[in-house]
Design goal:
By secondary structure, the chain is mainly beta. Helices cover 9% and strands 56% of the residues. It has an 8-stranded antiparallel beta barrel.
Length: 117
Amino acid sequence: MRLALLVLVLTAPVPALALQATCRFETRCAQTAPCVPDDLVLQLASGPMEMSALLIAPDETAIGEVGLAGNGAVQIAARGPSGVQLLTIAPDAVALYTRHLAEGPIAVTRLGRCEDT
């Protein structure tokens, strides 16, 4: 009986991470070009798996893995149709979002803030 209960506990599904935030980016920097003002809004939502998140941009949605850095920053590494994405949110809500686009290839980095919604 105890073994059956232990197996039940160990195989029970783990709930997905509760995540809902809006990130607004004011600055865009693309490789060697000068940085320019930006107005990208990125939505974050819980992903389909444990410790996963959806990065919802105006042009695509990517599923990423959520990690926690030693200083308390949240990091989401994702792969979408256009390439690889990395979002870092510091404890003070300052955010850095980088896309490594397969076409080009080119890297685009944005600076802004993320707030819970």
